[in-house]
Amino acid sequence: MSPASAPVLVVDDDPDIREAVQDILSFEGYTVVQADNGKEALELLNRQPRLRPCIILLDLMMPVMDGEEFVGHLRKDPELAALPVILVTASGRVTFPGIQAIIKKPFEMDELLAAVSAHCHP
């Protein structure tokens, strides 16, 4: 998979948010892969062939494995540690190590597209 065609990984336990983000990004020409929690996202990243997204849009508060625990696992894996992660959350929590930026929910479509386009190409 070339960098130009690398997908965006959306990790959020709310299916409506995942679908809305996928619709917005797909309309702009991006490929989107979804996971509903951090554990599922790690499984996607570790399957063969390994998924290499251009960016991960990550919710913070999720069941099974939350965003902070997911980033902790991600940063321990040398093959995954450099993947850019943007937190997309309604939480008032400030950033933590391993996060490039935070987009607050509810977000503007332009804000989401600007964050993705900084790391990905449709």
Number of contiguous helices: 4
What integer value in Å does the Rg equal? 13 Å
Structural classification: alpha/beta
The largest beta-sheet arranges its strands as: 2-1-3-4-5
Total strand count, please?
A: 5
Helicity level: 25-40%
Distance between the termini: 13 Å
Overall pLDDT, averaged?
Answer: 89
What would you call the shape? globular
- Stretches where pLDDT falls below 50 for ≥5 residues? none
Query: Strand share of the residues?
Result: 15-25%
Question: What features would you describe in this structure?
Answer:
The chain is an alpha/beta fold and 122 residues long. It is built from four helices and five strands; from the N terminus they run βαβαβαββα. It has a five-stranded parallel β-sheet with strand order 2-1-3-4-5. β3, α3 (67-76) and β4 form a beta-alpha-beta unit. The longest helix is centred in the first third of the chain and has 13 residues, at 15-27.
Fold topology:
Blueprint (H helix, E strand, L loop, with lengths): L7 E4 L3 H13 L4 E4 L2 H9 L8 E4 L8 H10 L8 E5 L11 E4 L4 H9 L5
Parallel strand pairs: 1-2, 1-3, 3-4, 4-5
Features:
5 strands; globular; five-stranded parallel β-sheet; 4 helices; 122 residues; alpha/beta
Short recap of the structure:
The protein has 122 residues and is α/β, with parallel strands linked by helices.
